[in-house]
Amino acid sequence: MADNKTYYYLKLKENFFDSEDMKLLQGMKDGYLYSDILLKLYLISLSQDGRLMYRGIIPYTPEMVATVTRHQVGTVEKAMDVLGKMGFIEILDNGAIYMLDIQNFIGQSSTEADRKREYRNLINTEKKRICGNSNVSDVGQMAGQMSKQKSDKSTPEYREQSKEIREESLESREQSTEIFAVSKDTVSRTDVQRAVEEWNSLAVYGLRPVSKLTSGTKRAKCLNARIKEYGIDEVLAAIERIKNSDFLKGNNKSGWMITFDWFVLPNNFPKVHDGYYENSTPQPQNGGSQSHVEQFADFARGWAGDE
């Protein structure tokens, strides 16, 4: 019987522990415990492309990290502080943890440059979404200030300097490996992840989040098709429009709420994308007939079931 499971693995070079960063880390008091926590976080984050957020929406607390790494909470708190200062991880204001070097250890070398660039863009995009600021450098400064306020022991200058060195090294490696172009028909895992995470942010309005997106299923194929057709930015914009629609959030006669599987269908997505359901759409007066919005939704619900 064929094995259809997806396996994730970490590729470490034989001199991994001989790097200056790892020598400095393990040279500290309890440094070997910190490096063990680091490797376990690398492995846990593999299925999310280096991003740590439980089920995609719940930030990992020190207690949760202690549970999954089998270390004391106090040790985990010290380790996270050290790993952040040394540039191994970055913790965003929403609690998402990014393993900054993990793109060196996963995937194929032919796609390495593109994957690393997408990963850095993903982090910056999430920063901008959290802070509501389009200037990436300003967001970086704000994140540094927040970290400094949280801990008197934090040293933003050291962290920023370490990050700049790593990014310069990353750019140098990208120049030597950027040989192959990604096909226009390819939808990256990063784009799919961004769309799912943006959808799951609607859970605060009571909408059902996506807990599973298996390759080859109807919902996965539909999402890939919408990303190819419109581009990831337009898909994210369409999800954002849902926030401006009381109707899609359940404020209608039947109490129906939009679902992910309904949203990605080819006949439904354009309506949401074009703002068909937004609050500015005229609604019927009390006692009047159904609006064209409700009529369309009733028709669509009749044949578009959730997966």
Automatic annotation (TrEMBL):
Pfam families with a match to the protein in the record: Phage_rep_org_N (PF09681)
Ranges for region Disordered: 141-172
Full protein name: Phage replisome organizer, putative, N-terminal region
NCBIfam families: phage_rep_org_N
Signal peptide: none
Amino acid composition bias (Basic and acidic residues), ranges on this chain: 149-172
Coiled-coil positions: none
Phage replisome organiser N-terminal domain location: 9-121
Lineage top rank: taxon: Bacteria
